[in-house]
Structures are given as structure tokens and as C-alpha cells.
């Protein structure tokens, strides 16, 4: 009996919450599934694209009212040109034009390999104010761009877009990237948030570097 009590206690947090791992057919009699009305949530991989010396990657299908949230993951994005930025834009006409008006804010943390410099900074060069231009996902205040084309230097991160199919509200987005900057051996962690200022449904998104081509993989998930 003591061992059963200890096993049960190990599945309860200090605040008295029952851990999900304890909810099995063996631990609670006759439980075979969650009630259908309980939303457990899941990520559904909708699309995966790989750039190979590509000018851009565009997701023109799969963004619909099926999901209220879409997440994009960037894996080993490597520019062919030094000193550029990784960026995106939105479309309301299935990719014929990428020109949605956006307002955003951008800040980043940085640390030099030598340890000589580090900090946290708001970056006005990398945000937008009612602009139809591309929104950068990387940046460090260098107007020419921040990515390195060194053989061992890549960008990874994510971007979330909320309820893109709404015809009532603007389209919020938030993103985070890790970026080894090409100047003086810096590592930066970039944070971007903003909204596409349109009540039209957004149904396509394009990723590119600000100049030249790039390699890398981008995954698109729908969140149930």
C-alpha cells in the first residue's frame, strides 16, 4: 500500500495538480479516452518547403479558416550573400501581391563571442509603421543587414500568425529568431511583434532574404 501511495504522490505537483502522465488506462479504472468536449490541442504539419539557392519560399495554399493559429519554423536558413536580413510579407490575394500594410516593433538581445559586449536593445531600423514593405525577422541595427554567409552560420526561429482568415480583425503576428551576426562575432536573439493592418483574409505568406538567395527549410503548422 505504501508503494502505491508513493507512486500516486509522485504524480501530483506541490500545488496539488494531477500530472497528465498519471491519466492512463492502468492508473484510473476504465478510462480509455478524454471526453470529446475536452480540447487537448495539437499541431498539424500542413506544409514543408526547402530552399536551395532560392530567391524566396511562398506558402500559397493551406492558410484558411481551418485553424485560428499558424506557426512557421525556420531551420538552418543560410544566405548566399553576406549582411542581409531574413524577412516576410503577407498576401490577401493568394500570393499575387505581398504588400499587406504592417505596424511592428523589434528588439534584440546580443552577446559577443569574446564576451566584450552584451545587452538588450530596441531597434527602430527593423520595425515598420504602416508600411507595405517586408518585415525583417533578424536585425541588429545595421542598415545593410545582419546575417552571415559563413559556412557555419545559420538562422533558426519561428513566426506565429493569429486568425489570418478573419474578416473582422487585424492580423497579429509574433516571432523569435537566433542569428549569429556577421560583424565581430555576435550572437543575437531577435523578437518581433506586430499586426497586418487589414480586415481582409490573409491567405499567403512569403519568406526571403533582403538581397540574393538562401538555403534552409521552413515548416508550416496549424494549431488545433
Describe this structure in words.
Helices cover 4% and strands 43% of the residues. The model has no long low-confidence stretch (mean pLDDT 88). It has one helix spanning 2-9, and strands spanning 43-54, 56-59, 69-79, 86-91, 102-112, 118-122, 135-136, 155-162, 171-181, 186-196, 204-209, 214-223. The protein is globular, with a radius of gyration of 22 Å. It has two domains: 1-36, no CATH class; 43-223, Sandwich (Jelly Rolls).
Task: Strand order, main sheet: write it out.
Answer: 1-12-3-8-9-10-5-6
Helix content: under 10%
Order of helices and strands: HEEEEEEEEEEEE
Largest sheet: 8 strands, antiparallel
Distance between the termini: 41 Å
Supply the key terms.
224 residues; mainly beta; Jelly Rolls; four-stranded antiparallel beta sheet; 1 helix; 4% helix
Amino acid at each position: 500500500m505504501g508503494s502505491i501511495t508513493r507512486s500516486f504522490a509522485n504524480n501530483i505537483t506541490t500545488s496539488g495538480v494531477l500530472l497528465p502522465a498519471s491519466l492512463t488506462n492502468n492508473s484510473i479504472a476504465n478510462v480509455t479516452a478524454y471526453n470529446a468536449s475536452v480540447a487537448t490541442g495539437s499541431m498539424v504539419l500542413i506544409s514543408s518547403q526547402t530552399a536551395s539557392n532560392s530567391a524566396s519560399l511562398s506558402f500559397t495554399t493551406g492558410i484558411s479558416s481551418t485553424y485560428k493559429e499558424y506557426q512557421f519554423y525556420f531551420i538552418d536558413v543560410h544566405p548566399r550573400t553576406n549582411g542581409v536580413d531574413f524577412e516576410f510579407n503577407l498576401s490577401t490575394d493568394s500570393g499575387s501581391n505581398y504588400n499587406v500594410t504592417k505596424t511592428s516593433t523589434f528588439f534584440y538581445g546580443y552577446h559577443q563571442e569574446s564576451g566584450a559586449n552584451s545587452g538588450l536593445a530596441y531597434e527602430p531600423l527593423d520595425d515598420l509603421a504602416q508600411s507595405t514593405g517586408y518585415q525583417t525577422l533578424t536585425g541588429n541595427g545595421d542598415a545593410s543587414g545582419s546575417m552571415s554567409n559563413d559556412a557555419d552560420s545559420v538562422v533558426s526561429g519561428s513566426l506565429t500568425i493569429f486568425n489570418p482568415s478573419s474578416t473582422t480583425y487585424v492580423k497579429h503576428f509574433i516571432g523569435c529568431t537566433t542569428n549569429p551576426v556577421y560583424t565581430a562575432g555576435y550572437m543575437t536573439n531577435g523578437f518581433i511583434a506586430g499586426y497586418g493592418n487589414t480586415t481582409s483574409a490573409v491567405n499567403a505568406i512569403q519568406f526571403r532574404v533582403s538581397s540574393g538567395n538562401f538555403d534552409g527549410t521552413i515548416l508550416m503548422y496549424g494549431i488545433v
